[in-house]
Amino acid sequence: MRIVGNITALAVATVLVGAVGGGVAQAAPSGGGAPSACRPANHLAKISAAPASSGHRHYRVTLTAAPGYAACELAGSPVDVRFSHHGAVGAVTAGRYGSQSAVVRFGPGHPVHFDIQVPSGPRAIPADEATFTLSAPGGVIPGESTAHGALAVAPGTVVGPVRAGA
Question: Minimal CA–CA distance to 60: which of 69, 51, 50?
Fold first, then answer.
């Protein structure tokens, strides 16, 4: 009887968490039964240098999805951004800047990008990987995405919102 009671309690808790949401988006495709391009396993991300601005270096992280995945919606800046160099996680974490409410469509033929803005100066440390969690209108997309490419980060690094285009 005790096992049945625990299973019932677990089922009720699962239903309640699902009904409330908890700030986690489901990476649901915007149509059809194909897997969502927003899920980390279903897209590629690449870091490349971008034009500098006064007092800052910039890097662009471009996300692309292969054909066969369903388009989805993203919004705001990625969260939980961490930088690594040769597999060692660095001490620099990134803040966010810009409007967090704009929604963009992402999927095959619809790449998106976001900006990494790094203060110029001697405190920069090298990195070759960024890991992050994408945000959607209903919360965050479960899982961690990874982008590869050479960059340098420093205290005060911030990440801009996802925007349409490569």
Answer: 50
Q: What is the pLDDT of residues 52-68, one digit of tens each?
A: 999 999 999 999 998 99
- The model's pTM is 0.80
Exposure of 98 in the CB half-sphere (CA atoms within 13 A): 17
Q: How far, rounded to the nearest angstrom, does the alpha carbon of residue 60 sit from its chain's CA centroid?
A: 13
- Is 76 strand, coil or helix? coil
3-state secondary structure of 54: coil
Question: Quick one: DSSP state of residue 39?
Answer: S
Q: What is the dihedral of CA 25, 28, 29, 31, to 10 degrees?
A: -120
Residue partners of 102: CB distance under 8 A and separation at least 6: 75, 76, 161, 163
87 in helix, strand or coil?
A: coil
Are the CB atoms for 115 and 12 separated by under 8 Å? no
